Amino acid sequence: MKKIVTAATAMLFCLGSYCQQTMPVVNNCESVIKEYPVLWQQQAAEYRALCYQAFNLAELRLSELSRKKLRKGHLAIITDLDETILDNSYSEAQLMKEGKTYNSKSWKDWLEHSAATGVPGAVAFLKKAKEKGISIFYISNRKTADIQSTLLNLQKLGLPDVDTLHMFFQKDSSSKESRRQLVMQHYNVLMLLGDNLNDFTYVFENKNVADRFTQTDKMMDEWGKRFIVLPNAVYGDWENAIYNYKFNYTPEEKAAIRMQLLVGY
Q: What are the distances in angstroms from CA 230 to CA 1, 47, 74, 209?
């Protein structure tokens, strides 16, 4: 463990030097750790390709539905919003430019802009699903106080079913299970879209890395069929699981944990 801490300290020292020499505006090197994931989301054609791939696959699944099933009605798709339908990388990028890290106020300020763009392929797919008579429900952990600014954002993008009847935002619990069940009581849910495994089922909630792997493997036949996953390397429960859902670690402690989890040869 001593070697791990020493290595992590050295890494942080290097990051600190990097911040001072090449990014003087950045005074918190935790933000530097996010730099490559945000750049990947904004600048990598591979990211766009993965998004198009996910929605092409989702469209293929819908094309397999029989006309009889479509005529029957009461069909729905449940989708997450952030990093599934809406690209919020601009918020993270702006924080980095200002030498800041994520906080609730900055997130609220970003939402008030109603300026998120669509994840590549998302708007076109949901429009095609609606044309088939499939209802779209947006289940998000944005707060209920953010519904109006979100409605405006979705309307700007021309998304279907943009009204309060189709939006289930967070009131108390961050778990989406009860909100999913409300939709499933009245609709045959064909597909769920998300960037976080908690967007699909409660079995991933507050699980450590090993348990998340186990549950993912158990559901291997669902991925790409009923569950469509969008890429998000910037944030999510995958990151919380690394730290066992403890949020009071210092940057040095976090660095040591990350180093320990790296698997070499």
A: 35, 9, 25, 19
